[in-house]
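Review form for a predicted model. The reviewer records the input and the model, then writes brief findings.
Reviewer: anonymous (R2)
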Amino acid sequence: MKDILFFNIDFKLDTKLIKFNIDNYNVLFFENSINSIDFEDANLNNVEIISVFTSSNLDGSILSKFVNLKCIILRSTGYNNVDLAYCKERGIKIYNVPSYGDKTVAEYAFGILLTLVRNINKSSIDLKNCKISNDKYVGFELYQKKIGIIGLGKIGKHTAKIANGFGMNIFAYDIKYDDNFINEYNITKSSLDNILKTCDILILTLPLNNNSYHLIDKEKFDIMKDNISIVNVSRGEIIVTEDLYNALLDRKVAYCALDVLECEQNICPKGYASTIDCHDYDCMKKTLINHKILNLDNVIVTSHIGYNTYEAIDNIQNTTIQNINNFLSNSDINLIC
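Model under review:
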């Protein structure tokens, strides 16, 4: 019998996956990420398929343990957590979930934006403690504000639709554009620098790759409009952590809503992503800065839950099962490499 191993399983929510079975395969489920499992005494020779979520890092040192691995089934859209070169060299196929939460993540982006700029969380906490002070809760309207959307893919497009509903002036930056969509929602195509200089609100909805890694750095913060508000629902590595922290201290950035962080797996190791097993100085430095960012009063940070709705989870599970069947039938649908 061959083995399929599922990691990052939520036994309360991933019910369709837990019920999944297929002829000639043993299916095993692990709650933790693949990086926190001790495989030292395990027999992995029969493992042909593994499935992971974003907090599992599939580098060469991990993948080399599975000598007969044929396929990786990602339960996410992004695949920056996988060593693509290793997989291509060894003919390991990778499937992803290309679309499961475009509406989900876009809605969440505005949820955390409004929570922050209208001081909803502060007011709720103060009211529970009977310490009401209305001067602390003064915010601003989204109507007619200039919003810059970086990355106009599926999530970015739905973000633009919501922004249009708020009556905002929409600017967008991407490497390619859907001109019909641009015209329908009265979006202004713009350079990244122009968006940073002119927009009141910046929302990051782009994938992480070599071009977007540390896209927002000190140089970009320096040219931003003063008192800009930033929302990141893409990947933490889009922004240089230390440069963001300094921009927040200087109040160059007035508000910042983050669902993602660099080295986010180290924030709450027992309940968030995995145990801390990091010997990288740079990553640990970012973790320290992340904790400082968490304590700033003009910041909201959440634990990478922008995708987390029943609808999106159902889409992920359905597509995951479909992708296993795609692999077994040698289909290219949702195939990354």
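Findings: The first helix runs from residue 15 to 18.
Further findings: The chain is about 35% helix and 15% strand.
Recommendation: see findings above.
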